[in-house]
Amino acid sequence: MHAVARNWRDAPLSETNRALCEYAAKLTHHQHSSSVEDLDALRAHGLNDTAIHDATQVIAYFNYISRMADALGVEPEVFIKNWGEG
C-alpha cells in the first residue's frame, strides 16, 4: 500500500486497479475531459455500472473535501502521523 501512496504508477497493481487509478487521476486533474470512453475502459476491466458509480462517488468526495479544506485554510491535524511513520 505504501507503494501506491508514493507513486501509484510504479506500484505493483492489477490492471483493474491501475485503470481505477488512471480514472481517479483524470477526475482529479482533468475532470472536464472525462468522457464515455473512460467509463467504457473501466467496463472493459470488468467493472459494472454500480462499481463505476461507487468509485466515482469516492473519488469525487475526496476531491471535494480536500478542496474545501484548502479553500478554508484548514490546518493539518498534527496528531496524525504521515503514512509509514508508524
**Uncertain runs:** none
H-E string? HHHH
Provide the CATH topology of the domain at 14-72. Answer: AhpD-like
Counted by DSSP, the helix tally is: 4
Proportion of helical residues: 55-70%
Task: Summarize the main sheet.
Answer: none
Straight-line N-to-C gap: 14 Å
Strand content of the residues, in percent? under 5%
Described by the principal axes of the CA atoms, the overall outline is globular
In quaternary terms, these chains amount to single chain
CATH class call of the domain at 14-72: Mainly Alpha
Measured on Cα atoms, how large is the radius of gyration? 15 Å
Give structural notes.
With 86 residues, the protein is an all-alpha fold. It has a domain at 14-72: Up-down Bundle (AhpD-like). Helix content is 63%, strand content 0%. Helix 2 (15-29) packs across helix 4 (49-72). The radius of gyration is 15 Å and the shape is globular.
Give a quick summary of the entry:
The protein is mainly alpha-helical. It is built from four helices and no strands.
Summary tags:
86 residues, mainly alpha, AhpD-like, globular
Protein topology:
Layout: H1 2-7, H2 15-29, H3 36-44, H4 49-72
